[in-house]
Every structure is written in C-alpha cells, then in structure tokens.
Design a protein that fits this description.
The protein is 34% helix and 13% strand. The chain is of the alpha/beta class. The protein has two domains: 20-37 and 259-350, Aspartate Aminotransferase, domain 1; 39-256, Aspartate Aminotransferase, domain 2 (3-Layer(aba) Sandwich), CATH 3.40.640. The strands form three sheets. It has a seven-stranded mixed beta sheet with strand order 2-8-7-6-5-3-4, with helices on both faces. Helix 1 (39-46) packs antiparallel against helix 7 (245-256) and helix 2 (62-72) packs parallel to helix 7 (245-256). The N and C termini lie far apart (54 Å). 44% of the residues are buried. Bound molecules: pyridoxal-5'-phosphate.
C-alpha cells in the first residue's frame, strides 16, 4: 500500500444491475420501461438548437422546473431537479441528515441508502421489515435524525397507503421525511397530496421508470420551499451545472406529454396483472405489486437456479444474494411479447 492510500476515502460502492451488451435479449433486470420515450421528446431533440451547446446550461434548470411544477400543481420554488433521482436522493442525504441521531430506513429497501449514509458518515439504523415485507411503523417512532421510506418499496414491490405515510409523518415532525416514489405511477397514490400539511416532507420521483428515460438521467424532489432552497444551496456548493441543455429540453417535452405517459403506465399495469395470474399458475408467489416489477419466489425451485437458467436464454432478471431475499427474483414488467417469452420458457423449465 502506498502511503497516500491511507488518506483515501474508502467506500463499498453500490452495485447497479447488469447492462449486458447483447443485441438480442429480454432485459427484465433493472426496472426500465420497455416503451420508448414520448414522441414529443424525439421531436424536441430533433428541433434542438445545437449552438446552445457552446454555452453553459441554465444552472436553475428553469424550463424543466417550470414544466414539473405545472404538471403537479405546485410552485416553482417547490421543485428541485437532479441527474436521476440518485443524484437528488444523494443531495438530500447530504443536505438534511446532519443530526447525530441515526436516520431510519428498512433493512430491505433500495440498496443505495446505506451506501450514501456510509459515504457521508451519517449514522443509520435499519429495522427489519416483517415476514410479509411490511414496515413495522412503531420502529419509526423512536428519536431519529430523519426517515427514508421507499413507497412502493423496492425490491419488494409493497405499497403502503397514505394513512400509513401520514402516521410516519405524525410521529416524525422534527426531522425531514423522504418518500422515494420511483414507482408511484404504477398504481399507488402519491404523498404529494400531503405536502400542504407537512413542511418536513420531501417527495422524490424519477423519469427512469414511468417516463422511459433512464438513459437521460432526470430525477426531482418536491417539497416546501425551505427544503428546496437548502438542496439548491448544497448543489451550488458542489456542481452548479448538473442538468445539460439536451436534458432540460427533452425533460420538459416528456413532462408535457401527459396522454402518452398515462397510456404507457396503463399498458404496464395491464401486463403486470396478467403476468401475476400466469406466474401464480406456475407456482410462484409474490407480494401484491403496485410497481413495474414482481418480487417472485417459487414453491419448489430455488431463485438462484431460475436466475441462471433464464440467463442462459438471454432473459435477464435481478437476483439479490442477500439474507431474507435470496430466494426471490425481481422481474421487471416488459412488453407483452417479452413477458410471453419469459412465461413460455418457465413453463418448459418447470414442467
Ligand atoms: C430506480 C430507483 C431510483 C433511482 O433512479 P434514477 O434512475 O437515479 O432516477 C431511486 N430509488 C428507487 C427506489 C429506485 O428503484
């Protein structure tokens, strides 16, 4: 080891799902949307003024912030945008979790949270979900430095209703409560409805799943203007130009394409409900998903075996080799054709 290595910041990085470089595959492993971005995005990119790329982009991301604010009926001062919700959530951890008390999030949830907590040296506790992968809300009644709830949760797909979120907020009025709603557009009710009542609530959403734009990297947070100002102060202390011109223009176009967005979400929900029935008939069980994925376990065949068998067919799903969830597969809802191919293979393999 070189002497300077003693001064390195040592972190155990987050491991994203695989992005195989195959031309023909069925990719159901990272919860991307199988449908293309809105046609309005295509048009916006084609009509873009590339002279604009000579200049720095607008550090306030005004056109994107305004489009998001308009869509959700909030003020511009209530919207923060970032490079995917990972950037937004990371900024939020850095901005809001300066307490000496631990922040709280479940043992099974989005696996980036503990990575940020370690990176920013934020103390944290991870109370266990119950045997049905539900949050025990009493675990969140203890004194803490902040709360993070993914709703619906990942990778479990479990959704808690707004009464539940309200209860968490009622018991945590002196810290910031982050609700990560990466999957809310697939059937849940957003906590955005509670913003007027709770100034300490920050709702985070993303373009990566329901808006078919994982490759563009856009996420946003909506909350009280004091929270948004604090986030922007931290952002401008680190990197002012997070959102490039192409992203701003296409993000605006996507947010305005309401009809297309709704259609895509409805298609995915319809496919999901059909696949639930078919997988049940094949001996799988799963929590009742309100997301664009199913968290499925088979009554006899181990998840790892299925994961590997599917992989050989170039059907990619996600397997987590972690305690309590190592007999589950997280299967993204793709197009009807993709799901047919998955079911077809499983029928053969299990039959
Ligand atoms: C996908 C996901 C994110 C991150 O999405 P971005 O692509 O960075 O916007 C955040 N939280 C959860 C729970 C997710 O599943």
């Amino acid at each position: 080891m070189k002497p300077w290595e003693a001064y390195f910041r040592k972190v155990e990085p987050y491991v994203p799902g695989e992005q195989p470089k195959l031309s023909k595959m069925i990719k159901l492993n990272t919860n991307e949307n199988p449908y293309p971005p809105a046609p309005q995005v295509d048009e916006a990119i084609k009509n873009m003024d590339i002279q604009k790329l000579k200049m720095y982009p607008d550090p306030t991301s005004e056109i994107l912030v305004k489009a998001i604010a308009k869509n959700y009926g909030v003020k511009d001062e209530q919207v923060f945008v970032g490079v995917g919700s990972d950037d937004v959530l990371g900024m939020a951890f850095l901005t809001f979790f300066g307490s000496e008390k631990p922040i709280v999030f479940p043992d099974i949830t989005y696996s980036f949270y503990d990575v940020w907590a370690e990176l920013f040296q934020i103390p944290y506790v991870t109370p266990a979900l119950n045997e049905n992968f539900r949050i025990k809300k009493e675990d969140y009644y203890t004194p803490n430095g902040g709360v993070v709830i993914t709703n619906p949760n990942a990778p479990t797909s479990v959704y808690e209703n707004l009464d539940f979120i309200r209860d968490i907020l009622d018991h945590n009025q002196d810290v910031v409560v982050i609700v990560d709603e990466a999957y809310i557009d697939f059937g849940g009710e957003s906590a955005l409805k509670l913003l007027d009542e709770y100034e300490n609530l920050l709702v985070v959403q993303t373009y990566s799943k329901s808006r078919s734009m994982a490759g563009m990297r856009i996420g946003y947070a909506i909350g009280h203007p004091t929270l948004i100002k604090a986030l922007n102060d931290v952002k401008y202390s680190y990197n002012s130009y997070t959102m490039d011109y192409v992203t701003l223009v296409s993000g605006k176009a996507s947010m305005e394409a309401t009809e297309y967005f709704k259609e895509c979400c409805e298609k995915i929900v319809a496919t999901r409900e059909r696949v639930k029935k078919e997988l049940t008939e094949l001996g799988f069980s799963f929590p009742d998903s309100k997301t664009n994925f199913l968290f499925a376990t088979h009554k006899t065949v181990p998840a790892k075996e299925l994961f590997e068998a599917l992989r050989k067919e170039n059907i990619f799903v996600r397997y987590f080799n972690k305690p309590r969830i190592d007999n589950y597969l997280r299967i993204t809802i793709g197009t009807d054709e993709e799901m047919d191919a998955l079911i077809e293979f499983l029928k053969k393999y299990l039959g």
